[in-house]
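Quick illustration, no need to memorize.
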Amino acid sequence: MKLLRSSICVFVLVLVVVAASAQTGIKTGAEQTEKYLPLLKGKRVAIVANQTSVIGKTLVVDSLKSLKINIVKIFGPEHGFRGTASAGAVVADSVDAKTGIREISLYGKKNKPSKADLADVDLVIFDIQDVGARFYTYINLLAKVMESCAENSKELLILDRPNPNGFSVDGPILDMKLKSGIGMFPIPITHGMTIGELAQMYNGEGWLANREKCKIKVIRVANYSHDMEYVLPIAPSPNLNSQQSILLYPSLCLFEGTIISQGRGTHFPFTVLGNPDLKGKYEFSFTPVSIKGMSETPLHQNKVCYGIDLRKYDTVELRKTGQINLSWIIDMYQAYPFKEKFFDYKQSNQMGNFDKLAGVTALKELIIAGKSEKEIRNSWKPELAEFKILRKKYLLYK
């Protein structure tokens, strides 16, 4: 009877996977259960996951538990395992209400599993959807988990997922003097790599702490190449709640280090830009308010912001050029009346320092100096060309 129930579960799981694949042609690593279930049998498994870690519409944790895989703990990232915590909010350890599995937060008191956390673990799974931007924190979490696995002789199984911005390799290479929680490695703003490819690069380039090497196995995405369009089925975080926001994020997140709102405190974040002081400069307006689970204390809360509406911006241009858009930040800097405040991220109460987001000090300096987009791009062109050559060594997809 137990064997029959297990077989039925596998059959249902396969049906869900087939249905999802029929729509996209792409099969994520998680969906290819036949390639990794044998690796999990008889092992005590920990999983680094969030709300994007799904097979069809079911969380990987729930699916694996139904298949009698022994999941002993869940490691939750920023926003938590269920993805409901606001950006930047400390997430506490807890017990997952649905599964009863202990959840350990890696976004709060610690940013990597401890030796004690891994003592009763044989294998760790990493399955989180990334969006392809250096300052999106999940790729830093990947490195920290790899370090812990290496230090404690644990294998890491990566269930790879497509990069929705995989068509773009652009921006300045991070100056390691500006290394921070929003940029840990010498890569550009958009790296054009998947989690699995980045893991190979971290190992290959000796970027982990003490040049540790993590034993990894990547379950590759099937039927995928970097230039393919991939619409995320689940929002990767509360403020990236649409495909438009995900595609605009690499360009608009730079505004986090400025006095300009990117729409946090609206239901369409990262698709609009504005500031109260731009009244008369732009016709479009919006008013940020406190929204629980998204932005509870947004910049310019309850104030009318004037600026740019990008909700209907044709992202085909981004895909065609493979470049982040600099014209918006150049134009808004030129339009802003109090230029000495524009990059004052402390005053703006934003998520990051502009130089750390950009990865270099030169970008801010060139914008202030009134340089053209072409001149700014030329400033990072040589190093970007070198990165593109390095990147090729670690690609799993065309």
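The chain has 14 helices and twelve strands.
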